[in-house]
Amino acid sequence: MANQKIAPGIYYVGVSHYDRRLFDALISTPEGTTYNSYIVQGQKATALIDTVEPEFKALLLRNIKSAGIEKIDYIISNHAEQDHSGSIPDLLAFYPEAKLVTNEKCRDLLLALMPDIPADRVITIKDHETLDLGGRTLEFILAPWIHWPETMMTFLREDAILFPCDLFGSHLAVSNICMDDERVFYEPMKRYYAQIMMPYRGQAAKRVETVKTLAPKMICPSHGPIFKDTSVPLRLYENWVSDSLRNEVLIPWVSTHGATARMVEHLTSALIERGIDVHPYDLTAADLGRIAGHLVDAATIAIGTGCVLTAAHPVAAYAALVANALRAKAKFATVFGSFGWSGVKVPDQIAGLLGNLKAEILPPVMTKGAPTAETFAALDKMADDILARHQSLGLK
Ligand code: FEO
User: Fold this and answer.
1) Do 64 and 141 fall into the same domain?
2) Predicted model pTM
């Protein structure tokens, strides 16, 4: 991707990683991602806001050069994670007059992660401290947990442009960083939110309020497209960080010989008959990123699992661990499935993996061998229970 001018003296110089398929070795990125880096020119100094994954440092340098930038005075680090900081040592070497500007926590992490960063070239700033570029002022706003504890946002006051790093990011490789088609970025943005922001939803909610106070005219995150209409990311995030849920049941399931699969089919139909949206995913083939997206607003998670010996299938346990790690919003959870000779421990095992969720655990349905008429009746009862709980929340 070439550099792109987004305002006079402000350039996008990041890169698209079209072929990235996994992020943090956890969530799939079927549409790749971008590592966004920005140049802000003042009358007396030029700043680079964040860098890129180190494997793309040559492309970053080429984009900076092609924007006509010969000298960088400040490299701003909003976040120490490698996808934004990994090229800092090379950039500092390439621009020997540049200083690295960041907050104290980020400084400590950067020096721990990349000991080759010269400590004497780091300027440490405090919350709301400013940096004068000459006619342009960067304000640094500490914003812990919009991924890691050291994260911060940078606000360009005169232009009212916000650089919030991971907040409002999308895992979407784009050729035009200003693309504004919500139909295209919605799912990659929600998938990103689920993995990065949802575990600290309360903190993200606070940052959304901070952003509203700043009233930026443009939001330039560190992944995916920028937003010239700032009402769009704010609207999406206000919904995602809220307690609101959808009348949906997420069913991550795995079946060793087909019995649990038949139970999935029956429960899915029973829920649909009761007017509930259902999202069943066979975990042997499912895209974990799509499942993560549903964790943002599904009111119930029903995990279907066959057994390996006397325990839940490890793949089902993994799905529960992911839902727990991402702190899904679901208010209700349950377990169903088939076992060979003993599966009595399975519901407690899965429920024990969901300790971070503030979810009521509904009665499970476990059956020995093939499902019977009694099993299907129990699944109908499970669907009734879920419907009643959803109605109690006013979900339709
Ligand atoms: Fe995009 Fe938390 O790094």
Assistant:
1) yes
2) 0.94
